[in-house]
């Protein structure tokens, strides 16, 4: 299986064009079974979704989970999750603390290969807010039943110091100091986007999707990773049996 994460920049490319069809084409290029999106809704006014669900299903074989409170919205604070049609999910919306409105979505998916928890998030621009936001996500996970978990999103963090938000996340997800550079698309130098997993062997081969279309469709390049859910699901089944 493949999982991906992408800040599609409200479908506005580096050429200044608003082009949702181009964004759908990039999502189709990813070939992923699960995709976490950031900035998938309008930010101000009525938070309607920016993508055409019918085109998504036709070209990418994916549909958005019903996260939004609006019938024509995609996500929560712009965070959306795309899955294969018919995928069952339990959803939880988290309001993240900070100086600007931010949120995260927790989706417990029932997949053929086993259960998977996907956390889709978009952290803030201020370091102190990112630290609080990472702590809020960790607290929410601690309160939940343990499941194989992937945290996907634009974490807006490139520092590796003791006080950066990634340091707190490493308590659960392991070393997270390094990652592929995904921003800006024309000359990627900053690893702002992340795909993190618990247990760590749940994902491998995290990489940027660097195509000509992706380079112009947003200011962030998408990330993709391999998802090894079969092996991890067996481990969790053994733990439940032992309990």
Report on this model:
The chain is α+β, with helices and mostly antiparallel strands. The protein has a single domain, classed as 4-Layer Sandwich (Deoxyribonuclease I, Chain A). 26% of the residues lie in helices and 28% in strands. The chain has six helices and eleven strands. The strands form two sheets. The protein has a six-stranded mixed sheet with strand order 3-4-2-1-11-10. Strands 5-6-7-8-9 form a five-stranded mixed sheet. A hairpin with a 2-residue loop joins strand 6 (102-111) and strand 7. The relative contact order is 0.17.
Note poorly predicted spans: none
The CATH homologous superfamily name equals Endonuclease/exonuclease/phosphatase
Rg of Cα set? 17 Å
Number of domains: 1
What CATH first level would be assigned?
Alpha Beta
Approximate shape: globular
Total of DSSP H or I helical runs spanning 4+ residues: 6
So, CATH architecture?
4-Layer Sandwich
Please give the structural blueprint.
Blueprint: E1 2-7, H1 20-30, E2 34-38, H2 53-60, E3 63-64, E4 80-83, E5 88-96, E6 102-111, E7 114-122, H3 127-142, E8 149-154, H4 165-173, E9 193-198, E10 203-208, H5 212-217, E11 223-227, H6 229-242
Parallel strand pairs: 1-2, 7-8
Antiparallel strand pairs: 1-11, 2-4, 3-4, 5-6, 6-7, 8-9, 10-11
């Amino acid at each position: 299986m493949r999982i991906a994460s992408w800040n599609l920049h409200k479908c506005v490319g580096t050429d200044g064009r608003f082009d949702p069809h181009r964004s759908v084409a990039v999502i189709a290029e990813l070939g992923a079974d699960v995709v976490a999106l950031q900035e998938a809704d309008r930010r101000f006014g009525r938070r309607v979704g920016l993508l055409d669900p019918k085109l998504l299903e036709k070209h990418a074989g994916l549909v958005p989970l019903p996260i939004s409170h609006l019938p024509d919205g995609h996500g929560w604070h712009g965070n959306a999750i795309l899955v294969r049609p018919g995928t069952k999910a339990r959803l939880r919306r988290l309001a993240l603390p900070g100086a600007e409105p931010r949120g995260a979505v927790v989706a417990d998916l029932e997949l053929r290969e086993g259960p998977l928890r996907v956390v889709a998030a978009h952290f803030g621009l201020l370091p102190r807010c990112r630290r609080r936001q990472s702590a809020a996500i960790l607290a929410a996970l601690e309160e939940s039943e343990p499941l194989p978990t992937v945290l996907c999103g634009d974490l807006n963090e490139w520092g590796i110091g003791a006080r950066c938000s990634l340091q707190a996340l490493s308590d659960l997800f392991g070393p997270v100091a390094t990652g592929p550079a995904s921003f800006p698309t024309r000359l990627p130098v900053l690893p702002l986007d992340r795909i993190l997993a618990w247990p760590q062997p749940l994902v491998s081969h995290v990489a940027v999707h660097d195509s000509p279309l992706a380079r112009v469709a947003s200011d962030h390049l998408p990330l993709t990773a391999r998802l090894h859910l079969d092996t991890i699901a067996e481990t969790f089944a053994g733990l439940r049996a032992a309990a």
